[in-house]
Amino acid sequence: MAAGAAGGVENSGETTLSAIQVRSSKEDLSGVAGAASEGVVSGERLSTLPLLRPAEALEQVPGLIVTQHAGDGKANQYFLRGFNLDHGTDFATYVDGMPVNLPTHAHGHGYTDLNFLIPELVDTIRYRKGPYFAEEGDFSSAGSARIGLVRRIDGTLASLGWGQGGYARSLVAGSPELAGGRLLYALEAYHNNGPWQVPENYRKWNGVLRYSQGSEANGWSVTGMSYSGRWTSTDQIPERAVAEGLIGRYGSLDDSTGGSTRRTSLSAQWAQSDAAGRSRANAWLLDYSLDLWSNFTYYDRDPVNGDQFRQDDRRRAGGFDLARTTYARLGGVELENTLGLTGRHDRIGRVGLYYTADRETLSTVRQDRVEQSSVALCGENQARWTPWLRSIVGARIDYYRFHVDSSLAENGGRASDSLVSPKFGLVFGPWRRTELYVNYGLGFHSNDARGTTLRVNPENPAEPASRVTPLVRSRGGEVGVRSEPLAGWNTTVSLWQLDLASELLFVGDAGTTEPSRPSRRQGVEWANFFTPASWLTADLDLSWSRARFRDDQPIGNRIPGAIETAVSAGLAVDNLGPWFGALRFRYFGPRPLVEDNSVRSSASALTSLRLGYKVDRRTRLALDVFNLFDRKVNDIEYYYASRLRNEAASVEDVHFHPVEGRTVRLTLTTRF
Asked: Nearest to residue 169, comparing CAs of 52, 74, 46?
């Protein structure tokens, strides 16, 4: 299989999802990568792995952990490089060139919901880390992932899945020839209750319709995607409620929390390559809505009605991305110059926060209409000075404009900001299949538009509130090595550091802005991929991070929730007669839950298994077992004050969302 044909094979310029998977692979980036921590994961590799949720595809990014603290219809929670990324802040995610992060979102700035992703359609995941790349802008200080979809699949695919907890999934997909191109279609139906005492009753529908001609490098495509989901939440619960026997480990303190969401998009991509260079263009439109009911503190704020609240988001958004790369030679130096222009506009018709009880609205905390626009110009020069030395120099200029029309007139207004972010990198080698990398760059993350015009506390308008800086500077550096010490063994090591000028954050759950402190994160990552035989692959990823606030305060300098240690390892077997399978292990280390480190989370170690049998060349059966050893561990833990119905005052406690127990799922897939 050609490198870059991840998820299938190159066939007449089309990316193909083959009927019989050969083996998992990672693309060799030697000679083209700009940093040691940059990489590509193939869709073929994903097809060998047991995935409990679609977003877990991102766990193939070394050091990245994907969890959930509520119902599965809600966006996942992400951890990487010393960050608790919440639902996506500081990690930029794209699907076929469309940004997934939603700014100024009702539940959290940068909200990244990947439940519309159909894993079988993934071609590649191209990931980067750190603010070293001119192409990467908002939300990408910790990293980014660009998910590409296949243009063609082999035959017509039909898949049926059954499992514990009311799990049922069906998928049909195909790509017939049409008018000189390919019409790719896919329809997914999904239901799951999980192990929860209050069933999630998560129902979702996904649809994809794409027409394409040519290839990714020379061709075009138009893609429509639609997703809708409804669920009952399984929010985090306090340890004391379980210890006192008020609820079970999979219980709930509010059975009316949950949500519904809808996402419909239309995107178009075009690319052309020749001896002089390459050009690409991308445009997209999005229509999105969310209604989300949550209750994290129970009866702390309102001892009579409870603390349930609703967040809603109604928006339409659109954007574009243009880039032209030209090749040149100056003396003996090979040059590659890229100039790009990108823009985005979010028209948020309503983003609101309301106090509720049993999903009935009691009062409005705040309700806003927001217009948010951004435009960026980026440029990059790559020069190969000698056979063993490359330089990468770039910069981007970002401009943001916000207009907030608030239910509280004092909190409305306009704001704008701009930043220039230079980038720099050196690549030495290859020497004996080894390259060395040095990277440095400035980046940023935006803040919620509502925080940029805030004047008063929405919960108490008589109380003044502080505005936030619209764009917050980040600064990072990295040194690393990429090598192939043995045939079939690719290994990378990177040492990195990232500073944020401020961790200012708009808290959607409260409708206010919490100013935080400047921070520094440092760490080391070691990623390995080994193919000792045509039928066997192995991988091992280790990462360690240190996250601290840079100003000394009596409260402490730890950053609550910051990931410190992550380990991922696995074996995959294929081409061994009719049998195939995979074994995955993930370790999520303990984390500080408060600034003085006096309360820490527990660690979790999970193992998952896939065992499969190829009935014939087009039909296969796969058995997935998640949490193989039925470990009683947690997906997420927080430490804060809450109040139960039988308590006279609030109590500070650890609140957790448990990992699902051993879960078995069976999938039958055929092609015709």
From this structure: 52
Tallying the residues shown for the chain, one arrives at 672
d(CA 273, CA 294): 49
Chain-centroid distance of CA 387 in Å reads: 36
Contact between 513 and 533 (Cβ < 8 Å) = no
128 in Cβ contact with 37 (< 8 Å): yes
Name the strands in the sheet holding 634-642, side by side, starting at the edge strand that comes first in the sequence: 237-238, 651-658, 634-642
Render pLDDT for 317-361 as a digit per residue (tens, 0 to 9).
999 999 999 999 999 899 999 999 999 999 999 999 999 999 999
Residue 190's closest CA among 667, 672, 593, 582? 667
Cis link prior to 430 (omega < 30° from 0)?
Answer: yes
Least confident range from 30-34, 49-53, 437-441: namely: 30-34
Reference 225, options 272, 278, 266; nearest CA is 266
Show the tokens assigned to 266: 């239309």
Quickly tell me which residue has 């990714």 as its tokens.
216
Structure tokens at 488: 């079939």
Q: Give the start-end residues of each E strand in 295-433.
A: 309-330, 333-357, 360-386, 389-406, 413-428
Cα 450 to Cα 418: distance, rounded to the nearest angstrom: 17
Strand partners, 402: 372, 415
pLDDT tens profile 589-621:
999 999 999 999 999 999 999 999 999 989 999
pLDDT at 633 over 80: yes
The answer to whether 637 touches 659, Cβ cutoff 8 Å, is no
Give the amino acid at 449: A
Tokens of 362: 């009691």
Helices H, strands E: what count in the chain? Answer: 3, 41
